[in-house]
Amino acid sequence: MIGPDEQTDHAQVKALQDEVDQLRQALVSHALVDQAIGVVITVGGLRREQGWEALKHMSQHTNVKLREVARCLVEWPARRTLPEVIRRALPAAVEHARARTGADAREAGQEIPCGRPG
User: Fold this and answer.
1) Per the database record, which ranges form the ANTAR domain (predicted)?
2) Cα–Cα distance between 64 and 58 in angstroms, integer?
3) 64 within a domain of the structure (yes/no)
4) What is this structure's pTM?
5) Which distant-in-sequence residues (6+ apart) come within 8 Å of 71 by Cβ?
6) C-alpha 55 chain-centroid distance
């Protein structure tokens, strides 16, 4: 027969195992999102904060979870295709990120780059 102390210990071990599993999943998701930001930065010629803004915008305006948008973007080079909803959302998300970052900089009184050096 399992005593109350053993039940408590078992419950605590189970809770800790669940927490470790959640943390592992969070690490995987974080790495995936970072890679997707890199894809968006490369495609759109954006800065890191703009890449994050574009990724969030795509998720919000396609009703696709951020992790799923990120997965599709990371797999895009190997698969050579994007789901239609993400493919259509990408240009608008890039433009949104550029405009939003520019508006934020103006509000903060910062200089805004006028274009790429060339």
Assistant:
1) 13-74
2) 8
3) yes
4) 0.68
5) 32, 36
6) 6
**Cα-Cα-Cα-Cα dihedral of 54, 43, 80, 65, to 10°?**
-10
Residue 29 lies in a domain: no
Q: Is residue 17 part of a domain?
A: no
Are 38 and 24 a contacting pair, CB within 8 Å? no
Q: 29: Cβ–Cβ under 8 A, 6 or more apart, which residues?
A: 67, 70
CA atoms within 13 A on the CB side of 80: 0
**Helix and strand tally (H, E) in the chain?**
4, 0
Assigned domain for 85 exists:
yes
Residue numbers of the domain that contains 43: 34-108
